[in-house]
Amino acid sequence: MRILIVGGSGVTGSMIRSNLHAYDVDVWTASRHRPREDRDRHFVMDVRRKPADAIEVMRRFDWIVNCTGPFEDLGDTVAKLSIQAASNYIDVNDSIDARREIRRLDPDARAVGVHVLTGFGLCPGLSTALMMNAVDTELVAPESVTGIRTDLVIGEKQVSGAAAIGSMFRTMHGDYRVLRHGVEATLDRATASRPVEGAVANDEAGANADGRTALIGYECPDIDVVTSLFPNLLGYEYRVAFEAIDDAMVTKLQQSRVFTLPVVSAALARLAARGTARSARATAGPEPSTLTVSFDDSGVRSTVTGLSSYAITAVVPAVTLGALLETDTTILDTGPGVIEVAQRPAMVPHILRGVKDAGATIDVLPAFDAPPVARGRATGA
């Protein structure tokens, strides 16, 4: 199996490449600039400015792994080029809008006979697998779940890519989308901290499960798939806490327009990325992140901890490709087209086992001190 990692010289791409070394695969990378290391197994490639050249490179590979970003900007660009190259595709996309664009490529993927796997990262991806596993292990009954909340606490001293930081700037500043009363709703950050009937109180100011850091409303493509897993679901939301960012900086990121200006925000993101790299090099390693999926007011929750958020993100596509290699793609269950974790239950054990093998701890248990989750009516939509 020949694999090309687009964005392979970045933080996530480098980790995916390392994870793939455990399998009998031929791994190459591609990005807009030539890296300092592994230069002889790298293609300089610009998917926006020279798409025809990118297609010619992609044609040489069985699978394209896309970890470029921000996905909010690139959308379905790399997936579309992969289909034109007749190469299979997998990504770590975490953008709702990009997910919807990629889903619309399903007829094109089927026409050329390729698999397009989208949302195989931390959230969605692992978060989706945790929800499906809770049903499979009878921790929850799908018909009885009316509210779900996913919380991610990102530990300090993590190396962060400029694209990811730029995406964070944009997401933290604007409104964000959740599921309320079974429909998508857009919450205004100015009003989201006010309690809403049946919803999470103190959305913006509420502490995470360990009471350490404020959780910030975010977005996740799981919003589009959770109702297919839980037919009576009324509310879903995703919240993130950054332990490296103090409350004053959180307020500045949310209120200052400078972080939304393209040129300025890009420069600030690159500067911040260099700062996180220096901080990480000066320490023994990043603090672990914690991903928690909570179900209803029952206190039932599934938790993953022990790895950085980047490490978790990188494991999921690598172990998925490894499982495909070992099972000769039968794990995909059906023919070609656009595929998500929620559509393929057979992938869940491989993802969870791969995350554990990478050093994470997964706890699936009733935890009666879990915070309440969203179930209320739509507000701010």
From TrEMBL:
Name of the protein this chain belongs to: Saccharopine dehydrogenase
Provenance organism: Gordonia pseudamarae
